[in-house]
């Protein structure tokens, strides 16, 4: 019996890395019977059949798993957001942050196209940057042909398993090409009429970069709150989670309840109005969700 990590899944085969070599494996039928499926990123036990083939017999417990892209055991996600073309979108950013918090994946916000900002826009963006930094999020700013980007990203990727996320046309493919120059991903071209990029999807593969692993996929462009319960939403806003013990009622949802620490913090400016608005919106979305059977 050998142990390794699935680095690539393609056409029903799983490519398991063990001591620097890839073993082409099939999954046992027992996984299908249980409704389980091995994922890229999984640590597995497998039996070898010949030199370069094998069968996966056990999947080790996962620390987390994402649906799109289907990948497990992620440490962090680089959230790629443009500040222009398309414009910086705080509600979409907060959606990503909330879902990543729920999966215990560390978000790192990468802001692209900062060279396109006017002076007025620059002030607005800087205000947002300070707000998100004060919550505790790491932010990396970059622009077209930024010569320092690789140097600044390498320590961030070191020793971690990372994925990229963000809406289309924000520069994910360009960023991947910077990190993995041999990849030469087709860069999505912005469609002027739609203001969105064209999709360029591929299979998922984890590639070694700077002593870490990076998912070779343009990532995912949206998230829903299928796995988050309304009582858990507070925990996915770190600045709310810190204060919730101060609420009078256990299970306070910070909407109509009296003596709510979150609403008090909103009054004093310790919580940003746009974050509270998004919290209300997301909460309603979770409440309106159709029950699953």
Major sheet size, sense and barrel closure: 6 strands, mixed
Class from secondary-structure proportions: alpha/beta
- Which architecture of the largest domain would the CATH scheme give at its second level? 3-Layer(aba) Sandwich
Q: Number of folding domains?
A: 3
**Share of helical residues:** 25-40%
Mean pLDDT: 87
**Could you say what the CATH topology of the largest domain is called?**
Rossmann fold
Radius of gyration: 21 Å
CATH level 1 class label of the largest domain: Alpha Beta
Instruction: Count the DSSP helices.
Output: 8
Number of DSSP strands? 15
CATH H-level superfamily title of the largest domain: P-loop containing nucleotide triphosphate hydrolases
Low-confidence stretches: 185-201
Query: Strand percentage, roughly?
Result: 25-35%
What would your notes on this structure say?
The chain is α/β, with parallel strands linked by helices. The protein folds into three domains: 2-61, Nucleic acid-binding proteins (OB fold (Dihydrolipoamide Acetyltransferase, E2P), Beta Barrel); 66-215, Rossmann fold (3-Layer(aba) Sandwich), CATH 3.40.50.300; 230-288, Probable gtpase engc, domain 3 (Ribonucleotide Reductase Protein R1, domain 1, Orthogonal Bundle). The protein is built from eight helices and 15 strands. The protein has a six-stranded mixed β-sheet, with helices on both faces. Strands 1-2-3-5-4 form a five-stranded mixed beta barrel. Strand 9, helix 3 and strand 10 (138-141) form a beta-alpha-beta unit. It is globular, with a radius of gyration of 21 Å. The two termini are 38 Å apart. Mean pLDDT is 87; it is low at 185-201.
